[in-house]
Every structure is written in C-alpha cells, then in structure tokens.
Request: fold
Amino acid sequence: MNEQKTLFRPPYLGCAYYPEDWDESEIPYDISMMKKAGINCARIAEFAWHKMEPAPGKFEFGWLHHVVNQLGENGIAVVLGTPSATPPRWLSKIYPDVMQVNANGIPMSHGGRRHCCSNNPHYVEYSLRIAEAMAKEFADDPYVIGWQIDNEIYSFDGCFCPECCGRFAEYLREKYGDIETLNARWNLNLFSQAYDCFEDVAQPKNAWHNPHLQLDWKTFQNDSHIHFVHKQAEVLHRYVKVPVGTDTMPFNGMDYGKLNEKLDVIQFNHYNDPQNHSNVVLWFDYLRTILPHPFWNTETQTCWNGSVAIGQSIKPEGFCRVNSFMPLALGAEANMYWIWRTHWAGHELTHGSVLDASGRPMHIFGEVQDTAEMIKKSAEFINGTRVKTRVAFHYDSINWNMMLTQPVVGGMNNDRINEFYRPLLDSGLRPDVIFSEKDVSGYDLIFSPLMMTMEKGGLSDAMKKWVKDGGTWVVGPMTDIRNIDGARYQHKPFGMLEELTGAKWLYGIPDAIGAVKTAWTDGDDFRGNLWYDIFEPGSGAALVTVKEGHSAINGKACVLDCTVGKGHVIILGTVPSHDDLMKIISRACAYAKVPCGTTEGAVLASPRVGEAGEGVIVMEYSGSNPGVYHFEGTMTDILTGKSYTDKAELAPYEILVLKK
Amino acid sequence: MNEQKTLFRPPYLGCAYYPEDWDESEIPYDISMMKKAGINCARIAEFAWHKMEPAPGKFEFGWLHHVVNQLGENGIAVVLGTPSATPPRWLSKIYPDVMQVNANGIPMSHGGRRHCCSNNPHYVEYSLRIAEAMAKEFADDPYVIGWQIDNEIYSFDGCFCPECCGRFAEYLREKYGDIETLNARWNLNLFSQAYDCFEDVAQPKNAWHNPHLQLDWKTFQNDSHIHFVHKQAEVLHRYVKVPVGTDTMPFNGMDYGKLNEKLDVIQFNHYNDPQNHSNVVLWFDYLRTILPHPFWNTETQTCWNGSVAIGQSIKPEGFCRVNSFMPLALGAEANMYWIWRTHWAGHELTHGSVLDASGRPMHIFGEVQDTAEMIKKSAEFINGTRVKTRVAFHYDSINWNMMLTQPVVGGMNNDRINEFYRPLLDSGLRPDVIFSEKDVSGYDLIFSPLMMTMEKGGLSDAMKKWVKDGGTWVVGPMTDIRNIDGARYQHKPFGMLEELTGAKWLYGIPDAIGAVKTAWTDGDDFRGNLWYDIFEPGSGAALVTVKEGHSAINGKACVLDCTVGKGHVIILGTVPSHDDLMKIISRACAYAKVPCGTTEGAVLASPRVGEAGEGVIVMEYSGSNPGVYHFEGTMTDILTGKSYTDKAELAPYEILVLKK
Amino acid sequence: MNEQKTLFRPPYLGCAYYPEDWDESEIPYDISMMKKAGINCARIAEFAWHKMEPAPGKFEFGWLHHVVNQLGENGIAVVLGTPSATPPRWLSKIYPDVMQVNANGIPMSHGGRRHCCSNNPHYVEYSLRIAEAMAKEFADDPYVIGWQIDNEIYSFDGCFCPECCGRFAEYLREKYGDIETLNARWNLNLFSQAYDCFEDVAQPKNAWHNPHLQLDWKTFQNDSHIHFVHKQAEVLHRYVKVPVGTDTMPFNGMDYGKLNEKLDVIQFNHYNDPQNHSNVVLWFDYLRTILPHPFWNTETQTCWNGSVAIGQSIKPEGFCRVNSFMPLALGAEANMYWIWRTHWAGHELTHGSVLDASGRPMHIFGEVQDTAEMIKKSAEFINGTRVKTRVAFHYDSINWNMMLTQPVVGGMNNDRINEFYRPLLDSGLRPDVIFSEKDVSGYDLIFSPLMMTMEKGGLSDAMKKWVKDGGTWVVGPMTDIRNIDGARYQHKPFGMLEELTGAKWLYGIPDAIGAVKTAWTDGDDFRGNLWYDIFEPGSGAALVTVKEGHSAINGKACVLDCTVGKGHVIILGTVPSHDDLMKIISRACAYAKVPCGTTEGAVLASPRVGEAGEGVIVMEYSGSNPGVYHFEGTMTDILTGKSYTDKAELAPYEILVLKK
Reply:
C-alpha cells in the first residue's frame, strides 16, 4: 500500500456520521457543530448501501460526493465504509439464500444488520460490486483518508446455511487431508463418532458435540469472515491508495492477525465503562503490535450506549476525556465517537453521541472540546514517537476459542485474561500483547497465561530457545496443556513444560471453594483459585506449596521457579490472587531487570520514543483516586507546560504528556 | 343496544360455571350450594364449543337449555360466552391453517386454548357460525342477562402465519398509503432497510428490528383481535338485546377503547394479590370511563390461582371480601369468581374456587356469603349512584406499546404507571383513568406520566387548550417525547411542552445508581430515579434542581412549575420518589382546588352520587393496618346502620357504604 | 437365566474402560495399573459400535477378543455393553429417520450419544443385529461375567418423530380401548378438547397441555425405551448365560420395576457429592428390592465429573472410599468407577478417573487401593449375607411422573422424597424402598409420602388389609389424592383414606410463607410447610392442630393418629420439618415395635444376615463429624479385627463390617 498524500494530518478526533438518515438541509448545521466541537474526521457510508445502490446495479453517488465535499472543504477528513453489513432488501428478495441460517434451520430476516452469510456467493458478488463502485468513484478523492470494510464482522454460533455446511466439509478436507486423519485426531472411536467422509461431519447443532469439532467450527466461521474481508480489500486496493481496514470488536476469538494480514490499518470499536476500563488498555496494547501503522480506535461512546433503551447511568466527569485520549497514548492515531448525532428514529435512537437527536449538544460537549484541544497540543509528540517496551504478554485467538469450547474447570474462562493483565498494569509495566507467531527476541520478560496450546506458529520452540537464551518467562496456568486440536497429551500433562524445566507434574485439582490451602515457601499465605497443578516439590525451586487439601497433595508445590539455561521459568499452577501475582511479577522483573512499580494507583504510563523525542504519556484512569508516576530526571507536560522531577502526582482522570 | 327487561337486578355476585365438565346429576347440588353462598349469576358455555357443536354444523343446545333453565329458575342469572377461545379438534383437522404460528414458523397444537389465528378465514367463519347459532337459540331466553365474546383475547408476540403476514402488509398499505411514506416515517435509510413494496416488509422475527416496525406489529395484532371480536358482536347484536362484551385482562397494550366501541359492557378479569392490590384500583378507575354501562368484573379468584400447581399461599382473612366488593365500589355492577367448583381434572385442577372439586365448600365460603350479604344491603345505593370526580389520569395503549418497544432507559417500563398512581390513591384522590380521545373538559386536575406520544386522538391540542383555560397538568416524565410513530423530534426534545410552557430543555441523563443529586428549591432533598430531563433553570419556576452529577447539569432544574394562561403545568423530568410525588400532588391539588389528603393509610374512597342519593364507599385494602377517611358532616353506613361524623376509622379490610 | 460358572467371584471393584479410544499398545500398561489399584472387573464396549461394525454388517471382534483375553488372563472380569447408545454415522446416513426429533420438529445430529429413537424400526433392527453378533461371539467367553444393554437410556421431553406420534396413538388405543373413554377419563369436554379418534390426540408440544396427556406421554416414552431394552434382552438371553442388565440413572420417572422384569441384574449409575450423599442411600435401598440378584453399581466417579469443564471442587479425603463401599453395604455385589483413565480427547476429557489421561495415577489412587483391600477382607461376609429389615418406604414412577406434571402447589416436587427419607436414615432405620406392586406383608412399618395415586398395582386394597392386620402406616402428604389418570376424586378428597380411617377432610391450604401456625396437641410448636390438609379435629386423634391462619381452619387438625383394626394410620397433612418428622417416626416405631435411634450422627447401618452369619455394616458418611452405632452384645470388625460392645464410635468416613 502506497499511502497517498492527503490534506489532513493525524491525530484524528472523529465520529460516525449518517447523513443518509437526515434531510440534506441538516448537513451544514452538523458540520458547523463538528467544527465547534473540534472534530476533524468523519466515518460515513458504512450502512448506506441502499442509498448508494437503490436498485441492483443502479449506483447513485452524487449525494455522497456532496457530503464528502462539504466535510472536506470544512477541514474534516473522511473515512468511507463499504456497506456490506447492511445489504438492501432487494438483494435478499432476488436471492433468499443470502440469509444466515441458525442451528435450527431458521433464516434471519431483513430489518437489522449482518444478516447475510459471508460464504454466500450472491452476497459476496454484490458486496464486491458495490465496494468496487465506491472505490472507483472515490479513489482519487482528496478528502478521503481511509476505508473501512464492513462493520464489526463476527458471528457467535455461526451460520448453518447449506453453503456453510458444504464449505465446512471443504475446510476440513483441506486441513486434514483424509477422513481417517480427522477421525484419529478428534479421537472419534469415542462414542462411535467416526466419519466415512468429510461431507458426513456434523455441524455443531442439536447434539452434545465434541470440543474439537466446535473449535474447528469456530475457526472455520471466523475464516469465512476473514476471506470475505480480504476479497473486499483486494478490490479496494486495486483503486485506492489510502489505508484500508475493517473495524472489529474486543477479543472474541476472531484471529485479528490473520484478518489484518491483507489490511493496512487496524480499526477497533469498544464501549467500555469506568468499571472495566483497564481491559481497554489490554486491547490497545494488542492492537499496537499487529500492524506497523498506528491503529484507529474507530468507535467508542461519548457517554453511554443505547438501542431502544440506555443501559447505563451517567458517567463521572472526565471519563469522556480519558477514554478519548487513551488510544492515542497507547499507539493509535485516531479516536472516533459513535455517534455524532443520535438517530431521530430507528434502532439506536437512545445512544450517547456528541449532539442529541434534537441537534442540541449533549452534556459532554465540553469534554469533547477539551480532548480536541489536548490532541492539538500533543499532535507533534504523538505523531513523532512510538510506544517502546521490553515486556510481552501472549494472547492468541486459538486459545480464546479453545477456552470457550473446553474451559477445563467451572469458573475458568477468557475473562481471566483481564485478571492476569491487571497486576501488570498495576506494576507500571507496558507490555506488548502478542500472538503466537510474533517474534519474541526483542523482549526480556514474557507472560503466557491461558495459552492452552503452544503448538501454533512454532511458539513452543520459539519460547524454548528464548528462555535458554536468557528470557524470563511467567507461564501458566492452563498453558501448554493441549495440542493444536485441543486434545490432551497421552503420556504427559504438558506439551513441553516438563521437558524444558525438569518439573514433574503429579495431579490436577479443581477447587473453587478454597478447600486447598497454600503458602509461599517463605511462610506467607498464598491465595490461589479454581485449579491447582500439583508438582513434585523438588522439581524446580518450589515457590508455593500446598498446606492442606488431601494427603496426596499436601506438601507438594503449585508454583515453581526454574532456572533454564540463562533464563528463568516461573510456572503458575493456579490462578493467583492479585496481590500474589504482584509478588510474582516483581520477582520476574528482578530477573529480567525490568523496572517495576513505576506507578501508584490506577495510573497508565506509556513510554514513547521517536523522531519527536522521548517521553511518556501518563493518565489516571479510575476517576476516583489520585495516582503517582515515578521516573528519573525532569520532564515537561506538553499540555500545560508544567515541569516534573522524579515523580508526577496525578489528580483523578488527569492526563500528562511528559517530554524529556 | 336496546336492553331487554330481565328477571334479575344487579349488582351481581357471580361465578364461572362449567356444567359440561361434570355429570348432569351434579347440577342440582351445585345450584343448591350457589344459593347457599349467595351467588346470583353464572357465566357459562365460554369453552363448550365441542359440546354445543360436536361435529361440523351439528348443533346440540338441549343440555345448555337444561342448565340455563335450572339456573334461571333458581334465581341465578346467566351470562353466555361464545366459545371461540376453544375451537374443537375437528376444525383444525379440516383446516390445519387455523393454527397460530410462532416466529420460528411452528404452528400451535390442539390441547389448550386460544391456539387459532384471529385472522384466519376458516376460524372466523366457524366462530361466527357457532356464535350465530347460540344467539338464535338464546336470543329470547329470559334467564340470559348478557353475552361474553371469546375469552381473554390477546397474544404476546403475535401470530406469524401466512394470513397474518399478508394482512400485515395490507394494514401497512392502508396506514401509510405508499411505501416511500413508510420508509420515510420509519427512517429506513438507516441500515439500508428501505422497502420497495409493502409485501417486502419483514415481520418482527429473527433479526434485530426497529421499534417502529414493532409498534405497528403490536397494533396490527391487537387490531386483528379487535376485528374478530367486532365481527362476533355484529352477529350477536342481530339477535340479542342484552349487553354484549368481551372479557379482557389487565393492561397489556390492547386498545380497550377501540375494542369496546362496538360492545355494550366492559368485562374484565383480574387475579391480583394483596401485594399488588392497589393496581386493581387503577384498572377499575379506567374501566369505569370507557363505556356508560357499569362494568362487570367477570373474573377474580376467591383465594388463589392454580393450573397444575398453586402458585400462592393462603391469603389474609378478609381479602376475599374486599377484593369482591372493590369493583362495585368503583363503578361495576358485577363481581364474578373464577371458578365455582374446581375442575376435577384437566388444566386447572388446583385453582381456587367456591367449592372444592370434591364438592365441599372452601375455607373462604363464609367470606363469599358475607359479600353477598353486603351487596344485598347496598344494592339500591350502588345501582342508584355513579362515581364522580374532577381528577383524571392518562393512559393509552399506544404508549404502553411504545414503552414496551422502546423503554428509553433501563428500568423504565409500564409497571412504573403503578408507581405514579399509588401516591394519588394515597392522597385520597379518585381519578378517572382516561385514554387520549376522552374529553378532558370536565376535569380540573390531570396527570400524564409515560404518555410518550401525545399525537394520538388530538390529545396534544386538547391539553394545550385545557391548560390555558385553567387546568392543572402534572406532566411527565417520558411524556410528549415521541411522535405517533415512536420517532424522536428532529429539532426539539418534546412535541409541544417547550412551546406550551417556555421551558428550555438542555440534556437527558440516565441514572439508576443515584449519581445525580437533587433538591427542592426550598432546600429539602428530592429523590428522583432512572432518568433526568434537565432544564434551563429560569424556564418556568424551578421546583427541583440538580446539586451534583456533572458540571454541565449542576444547578439546572429537573422539575418545573409553569404558569400557562389560566392554568398550571408541573413538568416532571424524572421518576420522583413516592413521598416527593405526594408533595407535588399536594401542590397541584391546591392549584386545582381539589381536596387532598382525605384518607390515611391504605384507604380507598369512592364518592358516588345519583338518584339514590350521595355518599361514598370506603374500604381499607391493606388488611394489615387501620386507616381513616375524613369528610365533612355526618354519614351513615348502610351495612351496619352506624353513623360517622367528620371521619371514619376503618379496621383492616373494613368496608363502609356511607350515605349522607 | 441360568448363571454360568465363571472364573471370578464378587464383590467386584470395577471400572469403565474404553480401549477403542487408545492405541492397542497402551493396554498392557493400563492392565498393570488396574492390578496395582485392585480393580477386578472392567465394563467395556458400550460405545464401540463403529469399531465392532465399521460398515453395515461387517463385524470386527478380533480387537475386542484381544482386550477381553488380556483382561481375563490378568484376573479382571469383563462386563460387555451392547453399543446401541452410540449408533455409527453410517446408520443415520442410510436411514435419516432414525434420529430423535424434538418438539419443534428438529432432528438430533450425529456427534453425541442417544440421538436415535427407541421406536424407530431401522434403529431397532440394527441395534438387535449388533447385539446378537456380540452375543454369539462372546456367549461362551469365560471372562465375560455379565452384559449391559445400552447406557443410561432415558429421555426428558421425549421424541416427537412420526414413528413416536403414530405409536403414541396405538399406546392410547390399547390403554383406553375407545376414544370416548379417553375423552371421559381426561375430562376433555373442558376447553373443547375432545377427540374423535386416537390419531387426533396431540403430542404435548406447542400448547398448554393437560396433565393427563402429559402423564401418558411420559409413560409411553419410558415404555418405548423399556420395550427396546427388552428386545435386546431377548436376543442376549438366546445366547448368553451370565446376568444381563441395563445401567440406569437416579429416579427419573422410568419404571425400573417394569424395565428390569426381563433382566437379571440391576445396574445403576450415580454421581452424587458429599452434599447429597444421603440420597444415594435411598436409591440403593430401592435397587436392592427390585430383583433377587444383588445389584451392581455400574458407575460412580472417583473424584469429580467433567465434560469439557469440571463442575466440582476437590472432595474430602475418604469420600472416595465411603462412596465406593456404600453400595456393597446396602445390597450390591459390585461398585464400578467411571472411568478408568480420562479420555485424551473428545467429550469428557476432564472427567475424574483412576488414571489421568497422561497415564499417571490421580490423587485418589490410594483410596481406590484401600477400597479394594476392604472388599477383599469382607468378601465372604458380603457374599454370604443379605440386608434384612421390617420397614418399607413407598416410591413409584407413576407418582414421580404425576408430581412432575401436576405438583399441586409451588415448591412441591420429587426432591421432597429425600426430605422425607432423611429422618428415617437419621433414626437408624434401614427401609426397603418398594414400588406399588411389591408385597407388603413382611413389613411392620411403612411410610408412603407423595404417593399421589394408590390405584396402581392394587396398592390401595393391599394397604387397607395390611393396616387392619396390624401394620403401622405413616401416610401423606399428597398421598391417595389422585386416581390412576391423575384426576381428582369428584365426591371426596382422597381415594380411600377417609373411608379407612374415619377422618374428615375440610380444606386444603397452600402456604409457603409460614402464614399457618401449628402446634402438637401436647403444646410444642410444630413446623409444616407448603401445604396443609385440614381435618375435622375429632376425626382420629389430632396430633397437630392449627393455631393461626384463617378462622375457618383455626383449631382444626393437620396431622392425625388413627387406630384402624389392629393397626395405626398416622396421616401427615403437611410437609413436616426434619425434627417434627423425627418425632412422628419415633411414635410410629413404638407402635410397630421397631428399634429407633440406633445411630447418632450421619451413620448408616445395614443389618445383614445369611449363611455367612449375622452382622451389620456401619459407616459414617458425612466426613465431617464422628458418629455412633448402638447395638446389643459384642461384635467384631472384620476389617480390623477390633471388638465392640453395645456401641461403636465412628470417626468421620470410618467404615466397620461388624459380625456377631
């Protein structure tokens, strides 16, 4: 992709805008208010298929040019969306087979969005045609700075239409080659499940299905969406020179690495609350690592979500500012609101926005203006620096899906990732969140919880080498316990952990009620949860041992510290409490010589370096308590010009852009 | 309707009786026990289609004449029900298409009731035929004092059979004229939903649908039932001269005004508990206003509900009496129990009744006898007076359905109507509950909460005039915020409230957690809930202002008191606590010069006037605490002959029929 | 059945073993570990249809002979399962109609188990063919000590395939003879439900159905499974001489008496926890009474259940031992674990076992070895004695299903059986749990709660005679209140209780909130729950009377003690508290001269007598507190050789095999 020179410069403070839902006469008012708010970018057209192609093959782009021109002429950059998430009624009327079908065989109806099947040839054909028509039309438009393909593409249970059923067989054939291999790898002598041919394999519906089928089904369904996006990307890339992406939702098992392989910019939507705001940090730490281009936070709310009913209460003052600036701190070049002006009718007529449906500014209008002002002041620093770190944290969609389809023990689930991440954040660390294939050689300290299989992308071998070369690895729980199919190992509990460390696993023990009591070898109580991998205590240095539970396990170890080559492996056999995990992180940081404890309270610190200098963006994100950031030397806050030495105290929701 | 002179006089204490389920030899025993209980009316035949027409076109009414005659000859009046709620198996065997179909395309089975589609031509044809046969047969029967059409006609999600789908398109065509109008009014450029023709419009199933479609679907489905009832009414009216009605259930979005337009008497079923007994008062205050004829409470339990299991515990002694007499106090001329004698087998074989299935009297038999005695003593006063009031309270099915399909904010729902009504009751008021089209000129004080649209039936204009002429209007929250389609106004937050009062709305704020703090302008704390409309404080006299929440709203007003012409408008921008609403009611009563605070405790007072004199029926309905009723002068209790001056103290569940 | 002389002797400590899921080379290791654990029996082949018949009619038993031989040669007896629970994919491919169909018409998919319909002729034909092939192949195998048909055969809502619908009509025709009889017995004039022919009768789906239809549907569905099992039994009995059974699950409305009529040994699976371990005692007391052959506990967990996630926490040490030995104490000759070694992949890859999937022993391995040792020591006593008692407790599947389909009052349900049983256990009683047809003449004391109908198997008459002859009967609540169809009696509340005792029932009262207050006639408070049958106090000696509730019931009785002939009938009109039921049991034991209070704490005592002498097996089953067993004289514990006089004190989870 060869980026075209545009009239606009990041960072962008943008919004989703739906001029097709309003009378044309409203546009000048909306634009004047955007300028007043400090908005410099608008995402448009993503749901406007019917307006652009009111009848098959009859394209009407005049109205859209008019909108793009008005925006661009007023200094507002445009991101165009291809409208495949909302196919018009005439498409499903001509080809009723385009509709997704649920596990009970019932097709979806027109009237919402994302009701068509990404595998359906008619839907694909017409989606590519409108995308191509748009691309041709706007390829050289100087006001268009980027493209978004579709919207929040994903499905929960997947589509069970005949096309999907057929293609699933083809997917399995390609993956397994012959049916005997599939039977063997899925252990299908069990329950007499074995198949004679790929066409016979059931889709996961109307029965108690095995987890391997379910894992492949999820991968297949996600891949179907990925292929659909890639086909659109190919079409767009034939014409346009600005970055192309697709806006996705928080972790859901979609393989964002694979999805973005043929795209230019990560686009991401989130609607988190103060209550779960730290999860957003995790996602941004992930998005940053996928593509070289700074990512775009394409959607977030200004104040609340709402379809026909608002599900939230008013948020604390300052949340809008911190939420808007956070992506920029962590590697984005854009933050965009959904939605500019609440719909006057239809599905989401109570959603938070910048302007109320009546056209009046919402109560957070001032916070939007403040954000625009901060962005303006820090633009040069943000554009000219990148986040830099020596710490990584593993996440991979295959493990997300494996955990979904076989969580091992009740209460274990993918939300636990956030529990593991939070203490890192509270230790002042700024990890890159990376998937299996990512090169680990640049890191000194890596955390790998819930990585049920390590057989993807050569991760197992990569980590062995990396540890022996001197890396510090905090691994587990629930890591390395399944092969790539989600099967257990037949003669060992782990894929390679025992072999790498010499540790000897004895038993696995579920415990959600605190029946197992444990302590640090130095005597302090330790609190684990849900699951215990029990090791022979002599295998590696025992860090935590069992005091009570069952005579077979008492005295054995559940957390080990093993020296391996020049490196260290800390094996977590359980889900530690927040405080116990803080202690483990501190120990690991000492091995890796990574500074630990640079923050106090809910403070996020994002060290950045680049042609624009060196510094750190710091923010208090709880909104309820002050926090502290410790550093060496003196830095100046670009926003206020104020200087800080050795430490900066932050008021609730305070943001500093500190430059050396 | 020209009422025939009958052998019987109201008020009626009646019961549902199913002689078809018992051996004929049981009838004399049942009748002897009815007489012992004081029952003077029986509702029969509503589910007996198969017994009256055991094969298509083969009518057998001999057994029914025999029952009617035995009842009538024993002084028990008869209400006959048309049996369309329970079509026989032979009908669905000849025409399988009569069955309702759910959103997944699955037809209902025979074996329960109300399984046929009100739009199905075969079902309609056969329903009218049996109704006509009955009407001819019993038109001149002197023992039959009224007719009931069908039973509890209503459906939740509606029927999705081909007939309904086709007729929904026709309904939309008739309402919107052309498809462009529908597209525009529903804002269907959003999500590319626009349709080319009415036949294309989806029914609300298997997708995330817009609230305007859902609102029209509900109206269409309810109208289908209404048309079905009207067709039966037309047939009956051709033959019978006694009142015809249809027995309906508590508020559910059915338009009872429209439904009863072609009927003569309101019939109503309720099964409330001591816990929610005050809601019943609201319903009776509504039923009274719809038709001139005193309404019939066609069903209530003597003690508990039960199908295959009783879902309730024994009720406090006295509840049966108060529950039985309450409709008569509030404008009815009949209270009837469901059921006379518990079914010995079948669907509802644990339901509370007057006689147990074994034929033995239930434990409340004495309370039924007491009720009969009270009715006898007060009959002349009840028949010769009507409830009289200067206060009204708005309710309209369109707003019920709008709230169902777009509740605006989580926690908001139609149950809130009861929360608004209860303080009126606790203030001693006796409002008429009226729908949009009702003339308001006779009232001095009107409450209109949750009237999301005021565009129905010219209500908006009527209220403007009424207020300017001197009315006192307590309006909101969630009133006047949507047009007739459930859409928001594009350039203003309310349809006419700002224009009428000069108030200036700034923001809408959701808050279910108490983040927003408010106070009366006199300094006392005020407790709102769920939602705040925030107004420029100077616009109208601020009654309640925001103390804390967000700097944009602090100091602004959420309850206003506006003088308009000769009248007053108190705008409620939030859901007030019970006590705060009591204060507002008191203020409004002072404006309207309506007596306030005439009752203490859970006391219901129903002032009545007519040819039989003037007085008031008073009852304590909590059953747990004594209460007081204040009045001027001296009145005598018709039940006991005891005299009261200035006030009457009531024991729990005590009932007084006071006459001047 | 003529039992073949085998190489093995009970008692058996066995396990389910799935060699088809592992490489053949694993077998020797598994067998060596079985021997180490003390396992002397393996259940195999139950799910291995596809491995035994990989293509239609192509049988392959070589691998299975190899496994059986290896096991047998190592002293491990084999139980073979017919594999009908897991038909191969090729069967449903040839005959798609074999699949069960749910109430929405959706067939089940391949990929789990028990997805075929027991009535489907193709499924039946192929199931019988594989069973016959196995039977021929292994009829004379000396290592095979028994056969299991299918696995946990049962269905919740049942199958709605065309075959089932047709056969349901035939079932009804056979039961009722003519449709008028069905209409009359089900009271189908109600709601115009009456049918013209059996083919018209609805299956219980997609409507609100009557409880009589639902009861017959459940019976029909269960009978379908029973017939299917009987057909397989017939085939097996043609060839094999060792006992044949089918392994069933805890009480679920399946008629285990009928099911096992054509079988030789009861097989039973349970997975209870410490929390509900006393329910297991109830089931074993039932299993023991059905067939003369000692029963087999074919499945229990060693430590926890788990499909893709373990749902439990680690269990207290000792639970495995007590849980393993309990069936042997109560009449079994085998206890078997599910599963020997956790599956390395597939549906249940987290289930507790003896060996982990990795091949390593689980933490309970030592408890399994202890159990084997105890069994060895007590084998002669267990084999040579039988449980002996004078007390019985009624349970019948028809009443289970009646309670499911019409629980009478909210909160009443079949779990209440355990509440009634527990105080018997706590009184040291060892009741036989028997169904309606069982001869009662050998018992002195019988409990019959929740026996809604007593019309099955002549129970009503049998009990009348038995009581008059001197029996002591504790009866109710909810007993004798319905006829065999689940209908109420039209002229009396009970079938025969009033007539038998002279008691006079007045009212039935629901009360889950404690509104009704009651007391023993001696003045102590009594606590009932959910329901009160209220009797004329003079009818029989009132034991408990109502103090408060409603004037109609105050002073009336709800528990009666009636002398009848030489016997006693204690009528329970309510659900007594545990302690109040203990008092009633004590009173009844005194009448019957049955020792009461022989145990303290959670102690189970199973008196046994036979050719091997006389004694009692005693165990503490709470695991948390010590207990005591009182007796007369001196006995010696076979396990330790220790002697006890008059009483034995037991530590938590301690087991004694005491012999006189």
Chain A has 17 helices and 29 strands. The longest helix of chain A spans residues 211-239.
